[in-house]
Amino acid sequence: MSDVLKYFRQERLPHIWCPGCGHGTVTGALVRAIERLGLDKNKVCVVSGIGCSSRAVGYLDFDTLHTAHGRALAFATGIKLARPDLKVVVMTGDGDCTAIGGNHFIHAARRNIGITTIVMNNEIYGMTSGQYSPMTPKGMVGTTAPYGNVERSFDLCELAKAAGATFVGRSTTYHVPLLIDLIEKALQNDGFSVVESIGQCPTYLGRKNKIGGAVEMLNWIKDQSVNVKAAAALPPEKVKGKFLIGELHNAPAPEYSSEQGELIGRVQRNYSDIKGGLWECASNSD
Amino acid sequence: MSEQKKSYLHVVREKYCKGCGICVAFCPKQVLSLKNGKVFAEKPDLCIGCRMCELRCPDFAIEIRQKGEDEARAADAGSVDYEIPPEAHHA
Ligand SMILES: Cc1ncc(C[n+]2csc(CCOP(=O)(O)OP(=O)(O)O)c2C)c(N)n1
Ligand code: SF4
Ligand code: SF4
Ligand code: SF4
Ligand SMILES: [Mg+2]
Protein backbone atom coordinates (compact mmCIF):
# COMPACT_ATOMS: atom_id res chain seq x y z
CA MET A 1 0.00 0.00 0.00
CA SER A 2 1.00 3.47 0.75
CA ASP A 3 4.18 5.32 1.15
CA VAL A 4 2.38 8.23 2.74
CA LEU A 5 5.54 10.11 3.54
CA LYS A 6 5.80 11.43 0.01
CA TYR A 7 2.97 13.84 0.88
CA PHE A 8 4.80 15.24 3.88
CA ARG A 9 7.49 17.86 4.39
CA GLN A 10 9.60 15.19 5.96
CA GLU A 11 12.25 17.52 7.26
CA ARG A 12 9.57 18.92 9.61
CA LEU A 13 8.76 15.50 11.09
CA PRO A 14 8.33 14.24 13.75
CA HIS A 15 5.48 16.64 14.37
CA ILE A 16 4.91 18.59 17.59
CA TRP A 17 1.60 17.00 18.60
CA CYS A 18 1.53 15.25 21.98
CA PRO A 19 2.02 11.47 22.11
CA GLY A 20 -1.28 9.83 21.14
CA CYS A 21 -2.94 13.04 19.86
CA GLY A 22 -5.58 12.20 17.25
CA HIS A 23 -4.67 15.02 14.89
CA GLY A 24 -1.87 13.01 13.25
CA THR A 25 -4.28 10.17 12.48
CA VAL A 26 -6.64 12.54 10.67
CA THR A 27 -3.77 14.09 8.73
CA GLY A 28 -2.69 10.59 7.72
CA ALA A 29 -6.25 9.81 6.61
CA LEU A 30 -6.31 12.91 4.39
CA VAL A 31 -3.12 12.00 2.54
CA ARG A 32 -4.31 8.42 2.10
CA ALA A 33 -7.55 9.65 0.53
CA ILE A 34 -5.58 11.98 -1.74
CA GLU A 35 -3.25 9.15 -2.69
CA ARG A 36 -6.18 6.88 -3.55
CA LEU A 37 -7.64 9.53 -5.83
CA GLY A 38 -4.22 10.08 -7.39
CA LEU A 39 -4.53 13.85 -7.12
CA ASP A 40 -1.71 16.00 -8.45
CA LYS A 41 0.18 17.58 -5.54
CA ASN A 42 0.20 20.90 -7.33
CA LYS A 43 -3.58 20.92 -7.69
CA VAL A 44 -4.32 20.56 -4.01
CA CYS A 45 -4.36 23.51 -1.63
CA VAL A 46 -4.80 22.91 2.09
CA VAL A 47 -5.83 25.79 4.33
CA SER A 48 -6.08 25.96 8.11
CA GLY A 49 -6.82 28.43 10.90
CA ILE A 50 -5.25 28.36 14.36
CA GLY A 51 -5.12 25.55 16.89
CA CYS A 52 -3.17 22.34 17.42
CA SER A 53 -5.26 20.84 14.61
CA SER A 54 -4.53 23.72 12.28
CA ARG A 55 -0.82 22.98 12.49
CA ALA A 56 -1.45 20.01 10.20
CA VAL A 57 -0.85 22.09 7.08
CA GLY A 58 2.72 22.86 8.13
CA TYR A 59 3.61 19.22 7.62
CA LEU A 60 1.84 18.67 4.31
CA ASP A 61 3.72 18.98 1.05
CA PHE A 62 0.95 20.65 -0.94
CA ASP A 63 0.41 24.36 -1.41
CA THR A 64 -0.69 25.27 2.09
CA LEU A 65 -1.90 28.30 3.98
CA HIS A 66 -1.91 28.65 7.78
CA THR A 67 -4.21 31.61 8.38
CA ALA A 68 -5.94 33.45 11.25
CA HIS A 69 -8.07 31.85 13.96
CA GLY A 70 -11.48 30.87 12.57
CA ARG A 71 -10.77 32.32 9.13
CA ALA A 72 -9.57 29.30 7.15
CA LEU A 73 -12.84 29.14 5.21
CA ALA A 74 -12.69 32.84 4.34
CA PHE A 75 -9.20 32.40 2.84
CA ALA A 76 -10.22 29.15 1.18
CA THR A 77 -13.24 30.86 -0.40
CA GLY A 78 -10.91 33.40 -2.02
CA ILE A 79 -8.64 30.64 -3.29
CA LYS A 80 -11.52 28.63 -4.75
CA LEU A 81 -12.96 31.68 -6.53
CA ALA A 82 -9.57 32.64 -7.97
CA ARG A 83 -8.60 29.07 -8.88
CA PRO A 84 -11.70 26.90 -9.26
CA ASP A 85 -9.49 24.18 -10.77
CA LEU A 86 -7.85 23.47 -7.40
CA LYS A 87 -9.01 20.94 -4.83
CA VAL A 88 -9.30 23.16 -1.78
CA VAL A 89 -9.22 21.47 1.60
CA VAL A 90 -9.70 23.12 4.98
CA MET A 91 -8.34 21.51 8.14
CA THR A 92 -9.87 23.05 11.20
CA GLY A 93 -10.45 22.37 14.89
CA ASP A 94 -13.75 22.32 16.74
CA GLY A 95 -12.95 25.70 18.31
CA ASP A 96 -11.62 27.17 15.08
CA CYS A 97 -14.63 25.99 13.08
CA THR A 98 -17.59 26.26 15.44
CA ALA A 99 -16.70 29.09 17.85
CA ILE A 100 -14.76 31.97 16.28
CA GLY A 101 -15.27 30.61 12.75
CA GLY A 102 -18.92 29.57 13.06
CA ASN A 103 -20.24 32.27 10.76
CA HIS A 104 -17.77 31.47 7.99
CA PHE A 105 -18.77 27.85 8.31
CA ILE A 106 -22.52 28.31 7.86
CA HIS A 107 -22.09 30.70 4.95
CA ALA A 108 -19.59 28.50 3.13
CA ALA A 109 -22.15 25.70 3.52
CA ARG A 110 -25.01 27.92 2.36
CA ARG A 111 -23.09 28.88 -0.78
CA ASN A 112 -22.09 25.29 -1.47
CA ILE A 113 -18.59 26.37 -2.40
CA GLY A 114 -16.31 23.55 -3.52
CA ILE A 115 -14.26 23.13 -0.36
CA THR A 116 -13.68 19.96 1.63
CA THR A 117 -13.72 20.85 5.31
CA ILE A 118 -12.22 18.38 7.74
CA VAL A 119 -13.13 19.21 11.31
CA MET A 120 -10.67 17.67 13.74
CA ASN A 121 -13.04 17.62 16.68
CA ASN A 122 -11.33 16.88 19.98
CA GLU A 123 -14.16 18.61 21.87
CA ILE A 124 -11.82 21.13 23.49
CA TYR A 125 -9.41 24.01 22.83
CA GLY A 126 -6.21 21.98 22.90
CA MET A 127 -3.69 24.66 21.96
CA THR A 128 -4.69 27.15 24.63
CA SER A 129 -4.78 24.49 27.37
CA GLY A 130 -8.23 23.04 27.61
CA GLN A 131 -10.97 25.67 27.56
CA TYR A 132 -14.35 24.20 26.65
CA SER A 133 -15.56 24.71 23.09
CA PRO A 134 -19.02 24.69 21.47
CA MET A 135 -18.38 20.98 20.85
CA THR A 136 -17.54 20.03 24.44
CA PRO A 137 -20.22 17.63 25.66
CA LYS A 138 -22.45 18.86 28.47
CA GLY A 139 -21.07 18.02 31.87
CA MET A 140 -17.43 17.68 30.85
CA VAL A 141 -14.68 19.57 32.58
CA GLY A 142 -12.45 22.16 30.95
CA THR A 143 -10.17 24.95 32.20
CA THR A 144 -13.07 27.38 31.82
CA ALA A 145 -15.61 24.87 33.14
CA PRO A 146 -13.94 23.54 36.29
CA TYR A 147 -17.27 22.29 37.69
CA GLY A 148 -18.54 20.91 34.38
CA ASN A 149 -19.82 22.52 31.21
CA VAL A 150 -23.50 23.48 31.40
CA GLU A 151 -23.81 24.42 27.72
CA ARG A 152 -25.28 22.14 25.09
CA SER A 153 -22.93 21.26 22.26
CA PHE A 154 -23.55 21.49 18.54
CA ASP A 155 -24.33 18.50 16.41
CA LEU A 156 -21.97 19.78 13.74
CA CYS A 157 -23.16 17.43 11.02
CA GLU A 158 -26.78 18.48 11.52
CA LEU A 159 -25.67 22.10 11.50
CA ALA A 160 -23.74 21.61 8.24
CA LYS A 161 -26.66 19.86 6.64
CA ALA A 162 -29.17 22.52 7.69
CA ALA A 163 -26.87 25.28 6.45
CA GLY A 164 -26.64 23.72 3.00
CA ALA A 165 -23.55 21.48 2.84
CA THR A 166 -24.01 18.90 0.10
CA PHE A 167 -21.84 16.13 1.56
CA VAL A 168 -21.65 15.43 5.28
CA GLY A 169 -20.03 12.54 7.11
CA ARG A 170 -18.65 11.71 10.51
CA SER A 171 -16.01 9.29 11.65
CA THR A 172 -13.44 8.99 14.40
CA THR A 173 -9.73 8.38 14.84
CA TYR A 174 -10.65 4.83 15.85
CA HIS A 175 -12.62 4.17 12.63
CA VAL A 176 -9.86 5.19 10.23
CA PRO A 177 -10.86 3.17 7.13
CA LEU A 178 -14.29 4.86 7.30
CA LEU A 179 -12.60 8.23 7.79
CA ILE A 180 -10.50 7.71 4.66
CA ASP A 181 -13.57 6.64 2.65
CA LEU A 182 -15.51 9.70 3.78
CA ILE A 183 -12.67 12.09 2.94
CA GLU A 184 -12.31 10.43 -0.46
CA LYS A 185 -16.02 10.94 -1.16
CA ALA A 186 -15.94 14.46 0.21
CA LEU A 187 -13.07 15.35 -2.13
CA GLN A 188 -15.09 14.06 -5.08
CA ASN A 189 -18.18 16.08 -4.22
CA ASP A 190 -18.33 19.25 -6.30
CA GLY A 191 -19.64 21.45 -3.52
CA PHE A 192 -19.23 22.09 0.19
CA SER A 193 -18.28 18.88 2.01
CA VAL A 194 -17.87 18.40 5.72
CA VAL A 195 -16.14 15.48 7.37
CA GLU A 196 -16.17 15.60 11.14
CA SER A 197 -13.56 13.43 12.78
CA ILE A 198 -13.95 12.89 16.49
CA GLY A 199 -10.54 12.41 18.02
CA GLN A 200 -8.60 12.38 21.24
CA CYS A 201 -6.79 15.13 23.09
CA PRO A 202 -5.27 13.08 25.89
CA THR A 203 -3.38 16.05 27.27
CA TYR A 204 -6.44 18.17 28.11
CA LEU A 205 -9.82 16.53 27.57
CA GLY A 206 -8.56 13.11 28.61
CA ARG A 207 -6.58 14.26 31.62
CA LYS A 208 -9.06 16.84 32.96
CA ASN A 209 -11.95 14.41 32.71
CA LYS A 210 -9.92 11.46 33.98
CA ILE A 211 -10.72 9.42 30.88
CA GLY A 212 -7.11 8.30 30.65
CA GLY A 213 -4.53 8.32 27.88
CA ALA A 214 -4.88 7.90 24.13
CA VAL A 215 -5.84 4.22 24.27
CA GLU A 216 -8.57 4.75 26.89
CA MET A 217 -9.85 7.74 24.95
CA LEU A 218 -10.10 5.73 21.74
CA ASN A 219 -12.11 3.09 23.58
CA TRP A 220 -14.29 5.85 25.01
CA ILE A 221 -14.87 7.26 21.50
CA LYS A 222 -15.53 3.82 20.06
CA ASP A 223 -18.15 3.07 22.72
CA GLN A 224 -20.07 6.25 21.91
CA SER A 225 -20.23 5.77 18.16
CA VAL A 226 -22.91 3.92 16.22
CA ASN A 227 -22.79 3.40 12.50
CA VAL A 228 -25.66 5.16 10.80
CA LYS A 229 -26.68 1.98 8.97
CA ALA A 230 -26.73 -0.07 12.18
CA ALA A 231 -28.58 2.70 14.00
CA ALA A 232 -31.53 2.43 11.62
CA ALA A 233 -32.19 -1.10 12.90
CA LEU A 234 -31.60 -0.36 16.60
CA PRO A 235 -34.23 0.63 19.17
CA PRO A 236 -33.96 4.37 20.06
CA GLU A 237 -32.71 3.71 23.59
CA LYS A 238 -29.64 1.93 22.19
CA VAL A 239 -28.73 5.02 20.16
CA LYS A 240 -29.48 7.60 22.86
CA GLY A 241 -26.41 9.52 24.01
CA LYS A 242 -24.33 8.19 21.14
CA PHE A 243 -23.22 9.83 17.93
CA LEU A 244 -23.73 8.52 14.43
CA ILE A 245 -20.81 7.76 12.16
CA GLY A 246 -20.86 7.17 8.41
CA GLU A 247 -22.15 9.10 5.43
CA LEU A 248 -24.92 11.28 6.83
CA HIS A 249 -25.91 13.45 3.88
CA ASN A 250 -25.21 13.47 0.15
CA ALA A 251 -27.29 15.81 -1.98
CA PRO A 252 -25.37 17.33 -4.91
CA ALA A 253 -26.30 20.89 -5.90
CA PRO A 254 -24.75 23.56 -8.17
CA GLU A 255 -21.34 24.64 -6.93
CA TYR A 256 -20.69 28.30 -6.07
CA SER A 257 -17.44 29.04 -7.95
CA SER A 258 -18.74 27.53 -11.17
CA GLU A 259 -22.04 29.44 -10.84
CA GLN A 260 -20.00 32.61 -10.34
CA GLY A 261 -17.85 31.75 -13.34
CA GLU A 262 -20.93 31.24 -15.47
CA LEU A 263 -22.38 34.54 -14.33
CA ILE A 264 -19.18 36.38 -15.21
CA GLY A 265 -19.14 34.75 -18.64
CA ARG A 266 -22.76 35.67 -19.24
CA VAL A 267 -22.25 39.31 -18.29
CA GLN A 268 -19.10 39.53 -20.40
CA ARG A 269 -20.93 38.11 -23.41
CA ASN A 270 -23.79 40.59 -22.97
CA TYR A 271 -21.41 43.48 -23.32
CA SER A 272 -18.90 42.03 -25.77
CA ASP A 273 -20.54 43.61 -28.84
CA ILE A 274 -20.47 47.07 -27.32
CA LYS A 275 -17.63 49.12 -28.82
CA GLY A 276 -14.72 48.99 -26.38
CA GLY A 277 -16.27 46.02 -24.62
CA LEU A 278 -17.12 45.60 -20.97
CA TRP A 279 -14.37 47.90 -19.75
CA GLU A 280 -15.59 50.85 -21.80
CA CYS A 281 -19.14 50.20 -20.74
CA ALA A 282 -18.22 50.05 -17.04
CA SER A 283 -16.13 53.21 -17.15
CA ASN A 284 -18.89 55.17 -18.90
CA SER A 285 -21.58 54.21 -16.44
CA ASP A 286 -22.40 56.40 -13.45
CA MET B 1 -1.96 -27.43 -2.58
CA SER B 2 -2.63 -24.73 -0.04
CA GLU B 3 -1.51 -21.23 -0.83
CA GLN B 4 1.61 -20.09 0.95
CA LYS B 5 0.83 -17.98 4.01
CA LYS B 6 1.41 -14.28 3.46
CA SER B 7 3.96 -12.68 5.71
CA TYR B 8 4.52 -9.07 6.57
CA LEU B 9 7.33 -6.71 7.29
CA HIS B 10 6.90 -4.01 9.93
CA VAL B 11 8.69 -0.81 8.95
CA VAL B 12 9.22 1.23 12.10
CA ARG B 13 10.48 4.80 12.16
CA GLU B 14 11.86 4.98 15.66
CA LYS B 15 12.59 8.66 15.28
CA TYR B 16 8.89 9.33 14.82
CA CYS B 17 7.39 6.90 17.33
CA LYS B 18 6.22 8.55 20.55
CA GLY B 19 5.32 5.32 22.32
CA CYS B 20 1.63 6.20 22.70
CA GLY B 21 0.70 2.50 22.57
CA ILE B 22 -2.30 2.89 20.24
CA CYS B 23 -0.97 0.38 17.71
CA VAL B 24 -0.06 -2.08 20.48
CA ALA B 25 -3.45 -1.88 22.23
CA PHE B 26 -5.61 -2.31 19.14
CA CYS B 27 -3.63 -4.86 17.13
CA PRO B 28 -6.06 -7.78 16.77
CA LYS B 29 -3.22 -10.32 17.00
CA GLN B 30 -1.02 -8.77 19.71
CA VAL B 31 1.89 -8.58 17.30
CA LEU B 32 3.34 -5.35 18.62
CA SER B 33 5.01 -4.29 21.86
CA LEU B 34 6.83 -1.31 23.25
CA LYS B 35 10.49 -1.46 24.19
CA ASN B 36 12.14 1.59 25.76
CA GLY B 37 9.18 3.70 24.65
CA LYS B 38 9.34 2.63 21.00
CA VAL B 39 7.22 0.16 19.09
CA PHE B 40 8.61 -3.11 17.76
CA ALA B 41 7.11 -6.19 16.15
CA GLU B 42 7.46 -8.82 18.83
CA LYS B 43 5.51 -11.56 17.04
CA PRO B 44 5.64 -10.64 13.34
CA ASP B 45 4.54 -14.14 12.28
CA LEU B 46 1.10 -13.59 13.80
CA CYS B 47 0.47 -10.46 11.71
CA ILE B 48 -2.52 -10.66 9.37
CA GLY B 49 -1.63 -7.48 7.50
CA CYS B 50 -4.80 -5.60 8.43
CA ARG B 51 -2.76 -2.36 8.59
CA MET B 52 -4.84 -0.92 11.40
CA CYS B 53 -1.64 -0.06 13.28
CA GLU B 54 -0.42 1.92 10.29
CA LEU B 55 -3.73 3.75 9.81
CA ARG B 56 -4.21 4.63 13.47
CA CYS B 57 -0.64 5.64 14.28
CA PRO B 58 -0.76 9.42 14.79
CA ASP B 59 2.95 9.72 14.05
CA PHE B 60 3.42 7.89 10.72
CA ALA B 61 5.85 5.69 12.60
CA ILE B 62 4.79 2.23 11.45
CA GLU B 63 4.07 0.81 8.02
CA ILE B 64 3.20 -2.69 6.91
CA ARG B 65 4.67 -4.27 3.78
CA GLN B 66 3.74 -7.61 2.40
CA LYS B 67 6.91 -9.66 2.03
CA GLY B 68 7.83 -10.22 -1.59
CA GLU B 69 5.26 -7.65 -2.75
CA ASP B 70 6.01 -4.12 -1.71
CA GLU B 71 8.91 -4.56 0.64
CA ALA B 72 11.42 -3.10 -1.77
CA ARG B 73 10.13 0.36 -1.00
CA ALA B 74 10.82 -0.10 2.67
CA ALA B 75 13.28 2.57 3.67
CA ASP B 76 13.73 3.88 7.16
CA ALA B 77 12.92 7.57 7.03
CA GLY B 78 15.48 8.02 9.77
CA SER B 79 18.22 7.28 7.25
CA VAL B 80 17.09 9.70 4.54
CA ASP B 81 19.17 12.78 3.92
CA TYR B 82 16.95 15.86 4.08
CA GLU B 83 19.50 18.46 3.12
CA ILE B 84 17.48 19.10 -0.03
CA PRO B 85 14.03 20.12 1.18
CA PRO B 86 11.29 17.89 -0.30
CA GLU B 87 9.52 21.04 -1.53
CA ALA B 88 12.30 21.42 -4.07
CA HIS B 89 11.11 18.28 -5.83
CA HIS B 90 7.88 19.71 -7.10
CA ALA B 91 7.29 23.07 -8.70
C1 LIG C 1 -8.30 35.92 17.29
C2 LIG C 1 -7.79 34.87 18.22
N1 LIG C 1 -8.50 34.57 19.32
C3 LIG C 1 -8.05 33.61 20.16
C4 LIG C 1 -6.89 32.95 19.90
C5 LIG C 1 -6.39 31.91 20.88
N2 LIG C 1 -6.58 30.55 20.40
C6 LIG C 1 -5.59 29.89 19.75
S1 LIG C 1 -5.99 28.34 19.36
C7 LIG C 1 -7.52 28.50 20.08
C8 LIG C 1 -8.50 27.37 20.13
C9 LIG C 1 -8.19 26.24 19.26
O1 LIG C 1 -9.10 25.21 19.46
P1 LIG C 1 -9.42 24.17 18.32
O2 LIG C 1 -9.76 24.88 17.07
O3 LIG C 1 -10.43 23.23 18.86
O4 LIG C 1 -8.04 23.46 18.06
P2 LIG C 1 -7.25 22.35 18.90
O5 LIG C 1 -6.09 23.05 19.51
O6 LIG C 1 -8.19 21.77 19.91
O7 LIG C 1 -6.84 21.35 17.87
C10 LIG C 1 -7.68 29.78 20.61
C11 LIG C 1 -8.90 30.23 21.32
C12 LIG C 1 -6.17 33.28 18.72
N3 LIG C 1 -5.06 32.65 18.38
N4 LIG C 1 -6.65 34.24 17.90
S1 SF4 D 1 -2.85 19.61 23.47
FE1 SF4 D 1 -4.34 18.08 22.82
S2 SF4 D 1 -4.87 18.68 20.73
FE2 SF4 D 1 -2.97 19.76 21.25
S3 SF4 D 1 -1.32 18.42 20.50
FE3 SF4 D 1 -1.67 17.90 22.64
S4 SF4 D 1 -3.13 16.20 22.60
FE4 SF4 D 1 -3.21 17.19 20.58
S1 SF4 E 1 0.84 4.22 17.37
FE1 SF4 E 1 2.65 5.03 16.33
S2 SF4 E 1 3.57 6.47 17.78
FE2 SF4 E 1 2.09 5.22 18.92
S3 SF4 E 1 3.38 3.53 19.74
FE3 SF4 E 1 2.52 2.82 17.79
S4 SF4 E 1 4.07 3.34 16.24
FE4 SF4 E 1 4.57 4.51 18.09
S1 SF4 F 1 -1.10 -5.12 10.42
FE1 SF4 F 1 -2.76 -5.66 11.83
S2 SF4 F 1 -2.13 -7.62 12.67
FE2 SF4 F 1 -0.32 -6.74 11.72
S3 SF4 F 1 0.73 -5.64 13.37
FE3 SF4 F 1 -0.61 -4.16 12.36
S4 SF4 F 1 -2.52 -4.20 13.54
FE4 SF4 F 1 -1.36 -6.05 14.06
MG1 LIG G 1 -10.20 21.34 19.56
Strand order of the largest sheet of chain B: 1-4
The CATH homology group name of chain A:
Thiamin diphosphate (ThDP)-binding fold, Pyr/PP domains
Q: What multimeric state do the chains show?
A: heterodimer
Rg of chain A, rounded, reads 20 Å
Mean pLDDT of chain A: 95
CATH architecture annotation name of the domain at 8-67 in chain B = 2-Layer Sandwich
State the CATH class of chain A.
Alpha Beta
How would you characterize the overall build of this protein?
Chain A is built from twelve helices and eight strands. With 286 residues, chain A is of the alpha/beta class. Chain A has a single domain, classed as Rossmann fold, CATH 3.40.50.970. In chain A, helix 1 (23-37) packs across helix 6. Chain B has a domain at 8-67: Alpha-Beta Plaits (2-Layer Sandwich), CATH 3.30.70.20. Chain B has helices spanning 22-26, 52-56; strands spanning 8-12, 32-35, 38-41, 62-66. A two-stranded antiparallel sheet of chain B has the order 1-4. A two-stranded antiparallel ribbon of chain B has the order 2-3. In chain B, a hairpin with a 2-residue loop joins strand 2 (32-35) and strand 3 (38-41). Chain B is globular. At the A-B interface, helix 1, helix 6 and helix 8 of A face helix 1 and helix 2 of B. Bound molecules: thiamine diphosphate (TPP), iron/sulfur cluster (SF4) (3 copies) and magnesium ion.
Quick description:
The complex is a heterodimer of chains A (286) and B (91). Chain A is built from twelve helices and eight strands.
Q: What are the main properties of this structure?
A:
heterodimer, A: 286 residues, Rossmann fold, 16% strand, B: 91 residues, alpha+beta, Alpha-Beta Plaits, two-stranded antiparallel sheet, 2 helices, disordered C terminus, binds magnesium ion
